[in-house]
Amino acid sequence: MAAHDVMAEQCRHLRNRIVDMAHAAGSGHCGGSLSCVEILWTLYGQVLRVRPSEPLWPDRDRFILSKGHAAPALYAVLAQRGFFDPAMLATLRKTGSMLQGHPDMRKTPGIDMSAGSLGMGISAGVGMALAARLAGKDFRVYVLVGDGELQEGQNWEAMTAASKYGLDNLVVIVDLNGVQLDGPVEQVMPMGDIPGKLAQFGLDVRGCDGHDCAELSAALGWAQQLTGRPKAIVARTVKGKGVSFMEGQSAWHGKPLAAEGYRLAKAELAVKP
Prior knowledge:
Layout: H1 3-25, H2 30-35, H3 37-47, E1 62-65, H4 71-80, H5 121-135, E2 141-146, H6 153-164, E3 170-176, E4 179-180, E5 183-184, H7 185-188, H8 194-200, E6 204-209, H9 213-225, E7 231-236, H10 259-269
Parallel strand pairs: 1-2, 2-3, 3-7, 6-7
Antiparallel strand pairs: 4-5
């Protein structure tokens, strides 16, 4: 099987796990989780320097899921990479579970930054990237944000700082799915030319198809090679990708996946790409 086909099959498996988790929990955020599967799997499968058996390895690359509601996708990927037993995925959002509705670095192996309120991830990433420089470390910091999340002004303050300090070990990845909780991003609060704005704030910018692992891998390789400035990768995605009735629909930002929807989603995800 070609490498592209292997990655596609692995992503289909991860999507199945996401809908399994959401259905078992009776809650969760399917739309934004499904849109970032390829991004996360390419990062953890090909790029990030991590040790699943040693989650707090000091020289690891750091990853921050700023769009923390997409935690089911990150949990599925972490389990797939061996950070914890995949059987734990069935406990999502249950009392006492280490898998909270948003990532918690105190509870879950492999989580480098807790998430909750949107818009704080890049700021934390700037701090981690500066800490690496001060400590003489060569680890990189990757931050995944949503396009709707970029409506938060704190993101732009953080990018101004990243540019000022020339943090070339910081990579911001935008999950550009065009939809947020209340509707299309361009109707809720238009963001205009996001790649252009990122460039104006001093980041080197590259776009790619966020559902094509080969394009993502190339973009992330590009980010590793450039020096002198922070980088941004704008990944074009589809909210709810892989489940037709969820795709592009704001209703599935956080809607519970009941029995009939679960049956339909599993039937679609059973078909190999």
